[in-house]
Structures are given as C-alpha cells and as structure tokens.
Amino acid sequence: MEPRPRSFYVLSAFFALFVLFLYGPTLTIGILSFQGEGGGLTFPMRGVSMYWFYDLFEQQAVGDIWGSFRRSIILGLMVMATTVVVSVMGGLAFRKKFAGSGILFYLIITALVIPSILVSLGVGLLFSQSGLNVHWSTSGFGAQLTWTLPFGLLIMFAVFNRFDKSFEEAARDLGASPWQTIRHVVLPIIAPSLIGVALFGFTLSYDEFARTLLTAGSYNTLPLEIYGMTTNVTSPVLYALGTLTTLFSLLIIGGFLALALLSNQRKARAGSDAGKGV
Amino acid sequence: MKKLLENRNVTGWLMVSPLAAVLLVFLVMPIVLIVIVSFWRATEFSIIPAFEWDNYAFLFGSPVTYAVFLNTFKYAFITWAFTLIIGFTVAYYLAFHIRSLTWQVALFLLCTIPFWTSNIIRMISWIPFLGRNGIANSTMMSWGVIDEPVEWLLFSDFAVILAFVHLYTLFMVVPIFNTMMRIDKSLIEAARDAGANGAQLLWNVIIPLTKPGIMIGTIFVVTLVMGDFITVRFMSGSQSANVGRLISNDIALLQYPSASATAIVLLATVLITIGILLRFVDIRKEL
C-alpha cells in the first residue's frame, strides 16, 4: 500500500475535532447529569450522585414526563409504520411515469423544504377552523408525516434507482403474479433499506418539535415537554432527562443498525451464487 | 376492470394514493388555508374572515420586517459557509483518504448518528460550554487569554450560528459524501497522470464533480436555517430575531392572520431561493 500523504494526518486531526464537536456537548451533559445534590448547571462537579435521575422519577411537579415519553413512543411507532408502507408504495409507483407524477414529486420536495412552522400553523388552523380538536395522534401524526415521508421516499427512490430489474423479469418469466413478484422478490431485496426508512421514521418523529408545537393539543410529546422544562427548570435534572432520552435514542439507533447488518448478512447468505464462479 | 388495472396512470395513482392523501390534507390544504387566513382580520380574541391587504401592508410597511429578513439571510449565509467548508472537508476525508469500505461506513455512521437524536437536547448541551461560568470561559481564563468571563458566548448571534453549524453540518456531509463516492476513481488517476498537483486535482476535478452534492446540501441547510425559530429563540436567549420567531411570536399572541401573512412571505422567499438553486442540479438524477 502506498504511504499516506501528509494531508491524511492533517485531515484526520480535522475529522477527530469534528467528531469531538459533534459529541462533546452531549457527553458533557452526560457527565454533568451525575452532578451532586448541591451542584449546578456547569462544572465543577459537586460530588457524584444519581440524585437528579431519582429526582426525575419522583417529582412530577414540572409536568408529565413519563406520560409524554409514552406518547412519543406510540406516535413514533405509528409514524414509523406509516412511513415504511407509504414510502414503499410510493417508491414502487414512481418507477413508472404516470400522469401527475411530476407534480407529486415537487410536492414531496416542498414538504421537505417548507419551514416547519408553516406546517404547524397550517395544520393547527385547519383543525381549529373545521371544528376539530388538535391531538397528537391525529393532527400531530399528520404533521410529522410531512417530514418523515419525504425522507422515506428519497431513500426509496435511491434504492430503486440501483435496483436490478432483471430479477423481477426472471420472476415474471417463471410465472409469478405481480403480487408474488413483489412479495418474494422485490421486498426481500430491499428489506435492509426498509430498516433505514423505519429508523428515519421513528427517530424523526420521536425528536420532532416544531411540527408538533401547534398540533399536539393539550397532551405534550417528549420534545415539547423538554422544551417547556428549559424555560422553568434550571437544575441538572434537565441534563438527566437529556441523557436518558439520548441513551434511549442511541439504543434505538443501535438496534436498527444491528438489524440492518443482520438482514444484509442474511441476504448475502441466502442469495444466489450465480455468476460468482463458485 | 382488468383493462383499467393495466393502465399505468390508474395503477400509479392507486399506489401513491396514501401519499397523495397525506400531502393533500397535511401540506396543500394547510398552505391554502394559511394563504386565506393571511387576508383575515384579527381582534384581540378571535380571527374574522375578511379580504383585506392590511396584514401585508403592515408587514411591508414595518422596518422591523426588513431587519428581520436581513438577519434571517445573514444566519443562512454564515451557517451555509461554515457547514460547506466543514462538511466538504469531512466528506473529502471519508471518501478519498479512508481506504476500506468498512471504515468508511463506520466513520460515516459516526457522523450521522447525532442526526437521529434530539435537536433540543443538543442545543441544551451547549449551556455548560458557553455559560458565564462554563468550560469555554474557565479554560480561557486559566490560560490567561481573558481576565474575566466573556458574556457573549451564550445567548448571542455567536451561539446561534454555533448551534446551527452543530445541528446541520450533517446535511452537507451526507450528500457531498454520496456524490464523492460515485466519482470514477480513474478520472482522478488520469488527472494525476496528466500532471495535476493536489490543489489542481481538488479544484479542477473533484469540486466540479461534487457540485450536485454541494447543491443538495445547500438546499437543506438554507431551508432549515431560514425556517428555524427554535434555535434562534433558545440560543440567543430571545435577544435576536429571525422570520420564524416573528411568526411564532404572532402565534403566541393569537394573531394568526398576521402570522399567516409573514409565513406566506417566508414560504415565497424559501421557494424562490430553492428554485434558483434547483437550476443547478437535477435532484432525481442524483439519488
């Protein structure tokens, strides 16, 4: 292997600094959440304790943290399932041109670039003007979909752009019906990417703030609850909550990535060795 | 019936009907309603259907509007410049200096994981760094760079830009890395053989070939920053304003018509900006 140029070491240092910049603050509040009972929002640490975590489980004066956590998870799962199904259908449909597909594509791009506060305001107005109550599972759910669906669809477009159509043709030649082709050929091949879509769907919903702000109604989701806390809670309990939800996110991400890895391996094992000279 | 199902327009629309329904109800109708409400009149307690240009007249007649729009563009431009430089460098390092695919994927994931965690928590996590008694101030004081704590670290434009760069650099890294990975390595060898040095290679080969990725990243960063209201509110300690905050303040005062008028002008601004950027790239080809 040729020796590394000097620029490699300079760029490696730059990259390391970038990673530090990305993770440093989160790690800092991770450390500070173990602040002693008398400690404040910054260093120095006044002892090490689990005080603020206990605090989180006990006092409910600041709001309904656990209720909002539960709502956020349920909403995340709803958005995730919907995003996967709708994105796959959309991705399949967009492989062929149909009347109006261009307009729909631009609508998807619009959903992606529209300032999130417009969605919040518009959906809120739509519900209040038609006499419906805003609720996280209806208006909040729909408002979040306008953010997760474009991501899901863009992933599906990317997947189908690289999709080898000869597999489908082979299935059809062997007499598979359109549904059988999709069920037994297309879906298994794109399965690892669907895990990616699901990951986007869940995490983007779980962390969404702006689009749920005016559409969640009287029951907050977790990000709204945390935002509410920033204005009236000035103790490390905020860090403890931040650390817990970040750990939860990391757990979810790790789970999805492991699943993607597994399904890729499975695909490699179960796949044909045709043309590989075995 | 069978014939109908063989029509590609019919099958196409059947497949996208859930997507179209969601976009219609939660994107198109809300935008239409915002347009309508922007012509309404507001009293202290309610909003009344009307057709008057007062909201727009007030918006365009107020010097605050222009200052706030200017501020929004300022945030967008500065953030864009920083995220582009950092994002390009990181993507370049990953694409051309890391030699094994496994490491490329691993380091790339390392860069993207924060994207899947909460933005609000990531903003809060700057408090111990930037606060008056925070890490930055105490470090600089112990080094003797400054004698007393600097006040402008947290709750300032500096903090706003820092948070934007922190949150949105990923949106540059991902598309730029994606385009770079698809550059044919033989082109680079050819340039080397033809005698190009490192700088020439970067300027004349890699940057032009990476332009679509740069454009997509730019679209993401610019729209996210222009549409933001929460980062500016939180990181500036409510001391700076952008258009998003103007809208959210009106909403807090239940002034929906004037919030709507501002929102429409913001949307138009964003769409025009995107329209200009899209002239340089065909998104569907780049996926």
Give the key terms.
A: mainly alpha; MetI-like fold; 73% helix; globular; B: 287 residues; mainly alpha
3D structure, described in words:
The complex is a heterodimer of chains A (278) and B (287). By secondary structure, chain A is mainly α. Chain A has one domain: Orthogonal Bundle (MetI-like fold), CATH 1.10.3720.10. Chain A contains 11 helices and no strands. In chain A, helix 3 (65-93) packs across helix 10 (222-232) and helix 7 (166-173) packs antiparallel against helix 8. Chain A is globular and about 75 Å long. In chain A, 41% of the residues are buried. With 287 residues, chain B is mainly α. Chain B has a single domain, classed as MetI-like (MetI-like fold, Orthogonal Bundle), CATH 1.10.3720. In chain B, 75% of the residues lie in helices and 1% in strands. Chain B has helices at residues 2-6, 8-37, 54-61, 63-97, 101-112, 119-124, 127-130, 135-143, 157-168, 170-181, 185-193, 198-227, 230-235, 243-252, 256-278, 283-286; strands at 41-42, 47-48. Chain B has a two-stranded antiparallel ribbon with strand order 1-2. The radius of gyration of chain B is 24 Å and the shape is globular. The mean pLDDT of chain B is 87. Classes of the chains: A mainly alpha (278), B mainly alpha (287). Chains A and B meet through helix 1, helix 3, helix 4, helix 5 and helix 6 of A and helix 2, helix 4, helix 5, helix 6 and helix 7 of B.
List the helices and strands and how they pair.
The complex is a heterodimer of chains A (278) and B (287).
Chain A: H1 6-32, H2 51-58, H3 65-93, H4 101-113, H5 116-129, H6 136-161, H7 166-173, H8 178-207, H9 210-213, H10 222-232, H11 237-270
Chain B: H1 2-6, H2 8-37, E1 41-42, E2 47-48, H3 54-61, H4 63-97, H5 101-112, H6 119-124, H7 127-130, H8 135-143, H9 157-168, H10 170-181, H11 185-193, H12 198-227, H13 230-235, H14 243-252, H15 256-278, H16 283-286
Antiparallel strand pairs in B: 1-2
Helix pairs in contact in B: 2-15, 4-9, 4-10, 4-12, 10-12, 11-12, 12-15, 14-15
